[in-house]
Amino acid sequence: MPNSLTYTLVITGAPWTTQAPQTALMFARAALSAGHRIDRVFLYGEGVHLASNLSSPPSDEIHWPHEWAGFLTEHGIPAAACIASALRRGLVDETEQARYELTANNLRSPFVIAGLGEWVEGNLTSNKALYFHGGN
Fold it and tell me: Which domain of life is it from (predicted)?
């Protein structure tokens, strides 16, 4: 597609307390349908809650972490949670579990934990970086 764009999506709002993850997912689906590409998704601040494997919403609510994980896997889109934001909020992968001698890890696949370099790279390699904030 000649006018195709590449996007990096940055989500800073938590699921269930903001519309940021929901709006970002609706945008991502629409962008792919229009022939654009999502280069990566970066979670920052409260947005890292989207990558928790321990979220368990009521059965009558949409499970946003599950929805995002399925979307990312289906389309092969890489997604990272900021390491500083994740550690502050008790979100760890196997590496951080071992480093801090924790009893468990709770990062949902396909998310990975990464530094801000991942965000910077997305800004450099994408045509546009879009931010989905949590308000305030």
Answer: Bacteria
Instruction: Tell me the longest C-alpha to C-alpha distance in the chain.
Output: 50
Specify the DSSP class assigned to residue 52: B
Round to whole Å and give the CA distance between 71 and 40: 12
With a CB cutoff of 8 Å and minimum separation 6, the contacts of 64 are 15, 16, 21, 22, 25, 50, 55, 57
Q: What CA dihedral angle connects 90, 46, 85 and 25, to 10 degrees?
A: 110
pTM over 0.70: yes
> How does pLDDT run across 68-97, given as a tens digit for each residue?
999 999 999 999 999 999 999 999 999 999
What percent of the chain has pLDDT above 90?
85
With tokens 């992968």, the residue in question is 93
pLDDT at 116 over 90: no
CATH number for the domain formed by residue range(s) 6-132 = 3.40.1260.10
Enumerate the active-site residues.
82
